Amino acid sequence: MGALGFWKFGLPLPFLFGPMAACLLAALCGAQFAGFGQVTVAARTILGVAVGTSITPEVAGQLPSMMGSLALMPLYILLIAVVGVPFFHKICKFDPITSYYAAMPGGLQDMILFGEEAGGNARVLSLIHATRVLVILLVAPIMLVWVYDVSLSNPIGEPASQLPLHEMFIMAGAALLGWKGGERLGLFGASILGPMIVSAALTMGGVLHSRPPQEAIWTAQFFIGVVIGVHYVGVTLRELRSVVLSGLAFMVVLAILTVSFAKAVTFLDVAPEMEAFLAFAPGGQAEMTLLAIVVGADLGFVIAHHLSRIVLVILGAPVAARFVRRVT
Predict the structure, then answer these.
(1) pLDDT tens digits, 182-236
(2) What was the pLDDT predicted at 328?
(3) 92-143 pLDDT tens trace
(4) 281 CB burial (10 A radius; 0-12, 13-18, 19+)
(5) Cα–Cα distance between 305 and 276 in angstroms, integer?
(6) Is the pLDDT confidence value at 324 over 80?
(7) How far apart (Å, rounded) are the C-alpha atoms in residues 239 and 227?
(8) Contact predicate 50/157, CB 8 Å
């Protein structure tokens, strides 16, 4: 209903914002429902293939030119930690472990899982990171249109009817092989990174020549929108006042850092400011991939930065969390 309503009234990104808005509203009204489980994970593989098929030899040749802005990512994460951990611990009164994982701009599911395993509050982490992703998905498109003067109507792919049938079968196989193979190997973010690696190899080898069809991208948007809204199921008025408002306040800090680093990258003449903004916006990998596709941004540049951010956060999380526990 949300998707159909947004589509009927000509609102932007109806297959993403429609389900997200409808599920969020229903959750806040007390509806009890759950996400789609493995179906949602399977939908994320579509985005992995979309990124992988965008990594052509030409894009790979541009990687050395990105090193200047990629080198800024550790500083970006460090500044977020320096501001975010004391904010959540001293002001919001969260415990040290919850404060650390609430501040870190990693993947939504990853930060909740790692934080819970380390002894943090999973409910608080779920609401904080769902709020982070929700705000970015709402604010980033507005900034892209008003500040960077881009359109949200960029073609996201060819219709299925115009793509070779054998390539779509190969894409589906790449998605499944990459996803399940990545899980067997213990690859973090296997549902996106696995399909991305396999489809990128096929693209570099000249086997694939196009992205997944637009119908598949719409499907991925739909399930991502639903899962964000579902994270607010059961939220109480107290949680809205404390946890969600804390997440909103922290987003101001993240916004300042994002814009500052985007300006720095533009000043260094590494990339246009729009790509720099998308590269440093601390959203989830799937959500930022969607936005990059919708506005026609340089997918290779944007995803390289998000991968480096997520890798640094995940690899550093256990060590940093132990340090935070000791000093607090």
Answers:
(1) 999 887 678 888 998 999 999 999 899 888 998 998 998 899 888 888 888 888 8
(2) 56
(3) 999 888 998 899 887 776 677 677 777 888 888 888 988 888 888 888 888 8
(4) buried
(5) 9
(6) no
(7) 19
(8) yes
In degrees and rounded to multiples of 5, residue 155 shows phi and psi of -60, 125
Query: What is the secondary structure of 233-254 as a DSSP string?
Result: TT--HHHIIIIIHHHHHHHHHH
**How distant, in Å, are the alpha carbons of 33, 122, 134, 239, 321 from that of 164?**
38, 45, 36, 50, 49
Q: For 24-69, write each residue's pLDDT tens digit.
A: 899 888 888 887 888 988 998 998 898 888 777 777 777 777 888 8
pLDDT reading at 259 higher than 80: yes
φ and ψ at 125, to 5 degrees?
-60, -40
Cα separation, 183 vs 133, in Å, equals 24
C-alpha 170/C-alpha 185 separation (Å) is 21
Torsion angles phi and psi, residue 269, rounded to 5: 60, 40
Amino acid found at 64:
P
From first CA to last CA, the distance across the chain in angstroms is 47
Distance, CA of 182 to CA of 204 (rounded, Å)? 19
Cα torsion through 149, 152, 156, 159, rounded to 10: -130
Rounded CA-CA distance 197/269 in Å is 29
Q: Do residues 55 and 169 make contact, with C-beta atoms less than 8 angstroms apart?
A: no
Q: What is the CA radius of gyration of the chain?
A: 19
The residue assigned the tokens 């941004």 is 297
**Distance of alpha carbon 147 from alpha carbon 259, whole angstroms:** 11
Give alpha helix (H) positions in the chain: 2-8, 14-28, 38-52, 57-60, 67-70, 73-86, 96-103, 108-117, 122-146, 165-184, 190-204, 214-230, 237-239, 245-267, 273-280, 285-295, 299-327
In this structure, which amino acid lies at residue 308? S
